[in-house]
Every structure is written in C-alpha cells, then in structure tokens.
Amino acid sequence: MKTKIKSLSLTLILFFTSLNTTYFSAQSKLQQEATPPIYEFTIESDWLTMKDEVRLSATFFKPVPRMAGEKFPVLFEFLPYRKDDSFYLRDYPVYSYFVRRGFIMAKVDIRGTGSSEGIVPPREYSEQELADAVEIIDQLSKLPDSNGRVGMWGISWGGFNSIQVAMRQPPALKAILAIDASDDLFHDDVHYIDGAYHVDAYELSIDHENGLPRTPDYMLDEDYFQNRFNAYPWFLTYLKQQQDGDFWRRNSLRWNYDQIRIPAYIIGGLLDGYRDSVPRMLENMKIPIKAEIGPWVHAWPDNGVPGPNYEWRHEAVRWWDYWLKNRDTGILDDPRFTVFIREGHGPDLNLQMTPGHWACVDWPIPGTSWMKFFPGKDHQLQTQPGKSSVEALRYIPSYGLATGLWWGEPTGDLRPDDAGSLVFDSPVLEKRFEIVGFPKVHLRVSADAPLAHWIVRLEDVQPDGTVSLVTGALLNGSQRLSRLEPEPLTPGETYDLEIEMHFTTWTFKPGHRLRLSVSNALFPMIWPTPYPMTTKLKVEDMNTCLELPVIPSQEPKKPKFRPPEPREQRPDARYLGGEDWPHGVYEFKKDMWNSQVSVVWQGTNDFEIQGRRYLTYEKNFFETNDENPAQSSFHGEAGHRIELKDRKLYLKTTIELHSDKENFKVTIVREIFENDVLVRKKEWKETIPRMFN
Prior knowledge:
globular
C-alpha cells in the first residue's frame, strides 16, 4: 500500500524551496541549520523477513527525493504496541515531522505482536527481540533509498531497547535517542520499583494487548490461539523474578556502560520514574552524549505535563543531521546537559506549568557542596547532631497514596502520608538555595520483624503548612547489604542504611521549611510487607542524617530551545474520548470496622481508525489490611471492544492477585468474544512463593 501525503500549500512549498536553496549552499559552511521541512512523503506497508522466515510488519514513512539519486538515513522504532491500531494515532505527529526533514521512518511491530507474525516473546526486551532488531538494522541500511546509516530511537520501551540494541553494536547503527528509559531493569523499571514488588495498570494492559489478534484482519484462527491467545502471561514471569540477577542485569546498561560505543541523546522528566539513568549515563559513558531533563511526567518534551515544554523534535533533527547526514548543526557545541530547576512551589495534583528555569550545566555540576541535616528531638531537623534518642513507628501498611503510583506524577499535599511517618522539620529557612542531584539519607534503624521497607521523602513545607514532595526513595530492607544476595532482618538488631533518593531539582526559599519523612509503607505503589511490626529510628546520631547536593549560586546559561510546534494529525483517525494510563481516575476508601483500605484506578481510551471503532477500558483495585498486611490483594480488568465492518470482537483480561505471609496466589483469565458469543477462554492459576517482598 502506498499513500502519498500532499499537505503543504503552494506558499509553504515556495517558502521551503528558498530554505532548500540555503540548505544546499550552506554545505561549505562550518555550521549549518537543521534540515527544514522540505520533503513530501509516502507511507508504505511492507514485510521484513527474519532469518527463521518469520515476517515482521513494517510501516515506512519515506521522503520523496528532490533530486536524482538522493539517499536518506533511516530512523528505526521497534515496539509491541500495535502500530496499526493502538499506536496508529500516536505515531503520525512525530513521524511526519522527521520524514518532512529527510529521514526514512521505519516502525516495526515486535514479532508476535501487532501485525507481525510469530509467537509473543517470553518477556520484554527478550533475546529474540534484540536479535531481531540487529537484523532489522542491517536490512534497513541496505534499502535502495537508504544512505546506509541507521538511528534507533523511542520513548519508554523504544528508549529501553534502543539502549540495549546499541550494547550489541550493530555496524549500521550510528547513534541513538532514548526518552524516558532506564539503564537498570530491576531497580528502576516498573516491575520492582526500588527493588520492591509493584503492580499497576501497565502490567495488566501489556498482557491484555499481547492477547489481541493480528491486524488488519483480526482473524480468530489456530495461529492466533496458539501464538497469542495462549501465550504465557508476562505478569507471572516477572512475579517469579523477585530478586536481582542475570535475568535483569544481562541487558541492563548500568553494569555494562562500556558496551555502547556510539553517540547517545537521552531525555528524561523530573516526574518520570526512569529519570535517574540520565545523570548516570552522563557520568559513566565515554561517548559523545547529549542529555536533557525537563519538568514533565512519562511523556514527550513538546507536550508533556507539566510544562514548560520545548520542541525536542527540532533538537533531534539537529542530532540526526550531524550523525547520519554529515551536517554540522552545532549540536556538539551545545552544553552536554540541560536541566530544569524547579522553584519551590506548592503541592498540586493538576499542575500544568512548573515554576522554575532551565540551566545548561556540566555533570556532575562543578562546585556542588553537600549540606547535612540531622533528625533530632521534638522532630526537628538540625544542622548538628545532638544527644542520641530513639523514635518508634508502628507499621500501618495503607499509608502512601499521596506519594503516587510510582515516583513519577504530580503530587498533592503530602500531609496524609506524613501522618503515618516519622517527620523532622528544619527551622524556617532564611536563605535561598538550589539542589540538583541525588539527595542521600543515612538511617540507623531496627525492626521487630524479618522484613521491612524504609521509605524516605524529602519535602518542602510551605508557609501555609501544605507539603510538597521534592523526591524520595525506598529501600527493601533485605537488600541493605546486597541487591544480589538479599537476606532477612534479625528482629531487634540495629542496621545502618544508606538510601540514595531519586534525581531531583528544587529551590528551597526563605520562609519555607525542609522536611524529612521516614516510613515503612508506600501503598499502593509497593506491595505491603506481610508482618505487623514496629520499627525504630535512632536520631541525633551521626549515622542518621540527610545530605543535600547544593549547587553554586550563579546566573545559569540558558538553552536556545524552540517553543513547541503544532502537531500534525492523521486525517483518517480520531480520538473519541477517555483518559488513558497513566492519567486515570483514583478513588480511596477506608473501612474502619475491619481495617480494610482500598484504592481504585480506572481509565478509558476510545478511538476510530478508517471507520473501525476501538473502545478500551481498564480498572484496577488494590486492597490491604492495616491489622494483617499479609492479606493484600489486587484485582485488574481490561477490555477491548473492536467494531469492524462485518463483526464485533471483545477481548477481556482479568488478574486476581492475593497474598498471605508465604505466597502470592494468582489467577489470570483471558476471554475472546465474537459478536457477543464466547469463542475461547484461557485460565492460568499459580501459587508463587514470596521472596523478600
């Protein structure tokens, strides 16, 4: 299939023709502007055949050459997120931007997903997926209209596998761009946040979509039932990998920084759970690297909330032009690191625009000093330790909702979570100072149970008494000495813990107070530990302190970012409404009679493609018991209603997860209906031992 897109008006064509003249005449200049949007393009669907004869579905956005024999570099994105339905609307605004600037855009469905043939992979970033990517890159470099150079890129999954494929060093891969991606698959990914068990809407939705039929025909044949519908759920695979080790580290860059030998452009968000990889990669990689961290959540920098935003696509064109077209756009003259430094603002669940400013800096930031505070008597945070004492905290597993579902979203007033924590406040601040980096907390603690998690939060107490989250982190107590060799706590024994908080920026202002909050519960972000208990914290001690990375006070160099440009939309598809992950609706309930506490998350996302309607929903229900935290549970349900011309399909997936002190008990059910008649049902039921979670 070929569809030629002609959306530039005659005026624009004449304008960009003049730019094109400048473009070619500038070849002799030392530094050039990025390629302007001078190309019309076609969209083509095709197959890429792997060595084992499995065909992977590819969609190409191809620029129309403006001169005989003109060749283009290829930008490759590789996802399981169904390019021909679930991501059909998502891709066009980004792909059209780059193809108009002279790049072949190649989007490929991972084998066993979307339109591709094959079996659903056994996990994310499987060996098969990465091997396929290496083979695809070789094929893309040899396309008739390719100049032989390939860049791999993406946000989230596409950023993860761009990093991991670069570690395999395929010859034609010349540079990568990774947005909102991590270098540490166990500690920083969504399955075990900070090394502790986590369940959320994503884990249900990915297993659910893995069970959908192939596009475009949605055939319910035996190939579908054998290779997709019956595929073993990833949810169970990950629940059986509760400890760090080779399963997680084999393709984690954090343990293999020297395996990437090509340039990398990395972007993160201060409210994204994967932000820590950006400064780590900057500090540890010996390659040309460009990095930015803005104020948004797990989203694109041009439209991610909260702003301010910038036109990252223009910066990406400068990047790709340099490495894939031999055009010196001055990208390497820019500072290596640009970060948004947040002003100390009040809590706001619906924050749209973050107060603060951009700063171009090196990393680590020269002149950074460490400011220490010590928890003390009367719950004060002091600049010097005093006489040692002990603070006790009863574990109440239902606290934590105000902190969010992961370390990545706008948060409201933290006082509800602080009510279940030990909190220590500084005197009212008299001087302004800024922090950029990873705050550290040292705790001397004990517990009367064999497993406890410690959660620390750095907070800003506003003059009106409301409390803003600056950053935080969790330490799984079993991993206090080693992530690879966890071991239980000895009840009553004292331990010294060091917790590195997640990367942050913040400006503490006069009239505000610093707050350190210490607790043992982070529900529903982290699965509750199973034992009722009391923990103790030794305060006014050199071994219990907070350290803040304070940067020098100086006028920062500011980036020359362009404001976001309008996003070009597909003419043959539209959103019909809804609110998709991760921006669903939350509801919190507490039953005082039986100590049951529950949180409900639900979201929908409906859309239409070429007359086909897709109605999707997801609902998650988390529950714990304040008196018996071992009895916690999760219920998730996801559905897809697909209305085709001559028939209707409905896929439903449910996950039931219950725990006791020793085990997780899981039931997963997948059902497919055609014209409201049940066609097939598959159930998995397993009991999986708890291992330090």
